[in-house]
Design a protein that fits this description.
Shape: elongated
Radius of gyration: 30 Å
Helix content: 25-40%
Largest sheet: 3 strands, antiparallel
Number of helices: 2
Number of strands: 7
Order of helices and strands: EEEHEEEEH
Length: 224
């Protein structure tokens, strides 16, 4: 799925429907699970490690709070300021963990097939709606809302002339402002539907990332 930071936008931000979500599906089938970082769908970004005046390190959180880390950006264990007791859960022991990366692969593949079908249906509906939006809310057909052209065939002597006359549409929009509002509401609805499909696609990518991480852990556990 193509990435987008703004999946759902309100009608005022979407005049003319030109910002409807991009549902380009970049991979039609599940990615091979190799355990290599280069094959992650969403590679992690390097943390921006900063230094406090006292020499300790930190990264900025979502609300610009200072999160203590080491010099590589790994979060430091949290402790209770009053008691000094650790607040984070204990590190896992050496209990065996079984993960079937093939099942994760199959689940990703199933989601991608479903999103591919949903995208086709969405695009078909979106195109039909955009094609008919200017008249469908107040007229029976598009032709009745367009200018009509008539022909006149006056005869003058031996010559035959054809002239054309154009009149206004048979049906005119009784409330253009209301129609514009309905169009923008439809755009917002399409945007919301597209955003939901987009999120399913991103979730499929997370399944692949999970499989890659488990496969990488498995590869790293062997000593040649």
């Amino acid at each position: 799925m193509a990435e987008s930071d703004d999946h759902v936008i309100n009608p005022e931000q979407n005049q003319g429907g030109d910002k409807l979500v991009d549902l380009t599906q970049n991979w039609p089938t599940a990615r091979t699970v190799t355990g290599k970082s280069s094959d992650l769908v969403t590679p992690p970004s390097e943390p921006e490690v900063k230094q406090e005046p006292d020499g300790s390190y930190y990264v900025l959180g979502e609300n610009d709070e200072h999160i203590p880390t080491d010099n590589q950006g790994v979060p430091a264990p949290r402790t209770d300021p009053a008691t000094g007791e650790p607040l984070d859960p204990e590190e896992p022991g050496d209990t065996a963990v079984k993960v079937n990366v093939g099942s994760l692969y199959d689940a990703e593949n199933a989601m991608l097939k479903l999103t591919s079908a949903a995208i086709d249906d969405f695009e078909s509906f979106k195109n039909a709606r955009l094609e008919n939006e200017t008249w469908v809310f107040y007229a029976k057909n598009k032709e009745s809302t367009e200018d009509r052209t008539y022909t006149r065939n006056p005869e003058a002597g031996e010559e035959f002339f054809v002239a054309f006359e154009t009149t206004g549409p048979e049906v005119e929009d009784p409330n253009p402002e209301r129609t514009a509002e309905l169009i923008q509401n439809q755009n917002a609805l399409l945007q919301a539907i597209g955003g939901a499909i987009h999120r399913v696609g991103r979730f499929a990518g997370m399944y692949n990332d999970a499989a890659q991480i488990y496969a990488a852990a498995d590869r790293s556990s062997w000593i040649d």
